[in-house]
Amino acid sequence: MSNYASEINRRRTFAIISHPDAGKTTLTEKFLLYGGAINLAGSVKGKATARHAVSDWMEIEKERGISVTSSVLQFEYDGYCINILDTPGHQDFSEDTYRTLMAADSAVMVIDASKGVEAQTRKLFKVCGMRGIPIFTFINKLDRDANDTFDLLDDIEKELGIATCPVNWPIGSGKEFKGVYDREKQCVISYSDTEKGTKEGIATEIPIEDEDHLRTLIGEAAAEKLLGEIELLDGASAEFDLDLVRAGRLTPVCFGSALTNFGVEIFLKHFLNMTTPPLPRMADVKPTEHEFSAFVF
User: Residue 109: beta bridge partners?
Assistant: First the structure.
């Protein structure tokens, strides 16, 4: 393989889309942290004393704690050269987001676990759907009280019309957040709080068959609930199909907390295993003049 072809094959370019305040810029910062592009992740809160996000470089972004313009950020991770297109979530700046999506080979959709699918997410998802862009979902803010997990998946399927396939499964939320269950490895990865700007601490993995150890780690009630949910999940959820994922008809779903940095690297690894290098891509449907005007504010 030529150096040129090799460089193409290791490249991944994706956009991050969400409703405002779902945590996409914070997630972007944590990706950069794992890639070694930064040493300490910043905050998107509008505080004069806080360290601001790398992608929020304009003064208005630092003052208001929102992304106003798209940013392109590049970092290396595990042999991949990754380009992140961090887009504005606020509808006042959405035209910039629609243009940016033209350059994306895939999209990471960030959803607030306490709110589910919101208005701007619906609009951006529709743009991705018309262009046949694969969607990878990160349900964020499990460190806060969240909606029922099955309800969140049902919300995505009903609101956006795309099938979901959980890659992992959360164990509780808020103060009761214990970690996630990895469906492929069939093990529980425990959650431990860390300093918000640093990489996550040492993860403890326990095989799901080791029930005694599991109950000791996460508690009797959480273990009972998890085992019941896994049984229901294995029987009712859509089977993973990589072809459907790349066709934009099935979205893999991961859970975690970008703020506390739990589940971010897990998601990144799964994402890189499923995505492709840059490929030619065509929209299945050409938007009508009415549909196009509905996207532009």
Answer: 17, 137
Q: pTM for this one?
A: 0.83
Alpha-carbon distance 83 to 14, whole Å?
7
The gap from C-alpha 214 to its chain's centroid, in whole angstroms, comes to: 27
Q: What is the pLDDT of residues 38-84, one digit of tens each?
A: 755 444 444 444 444 454 444 544 454 455 566 788 999 999 999 99
Phi, psi of 166 (to 5 degrees): -65, 130
Kindly give the residue spans of alpha helices, DSSP state H, lying in the chain. 3-9, 24-34, 59-64, 94-100, 119-130, 149-160, 211-218, 220-236, 242-246, 264-274, 289-295
Contacts of 226 (CB under 8 A, 6+ apart): 169, 171, 181, 188, 214, 218
CA pair distance 40, 53, nearest whole angstrom: 10
Find where tokens 């809160």 sit.
45
CA distances in angstroms from 51 to 35, 36, 97, 126, 238, listed in the order given: 19, 17, 25, 34, 41
Q: Does the CA dihedral 194-198-202-208 come out positive or negative? A: positive
DSSP 257: B
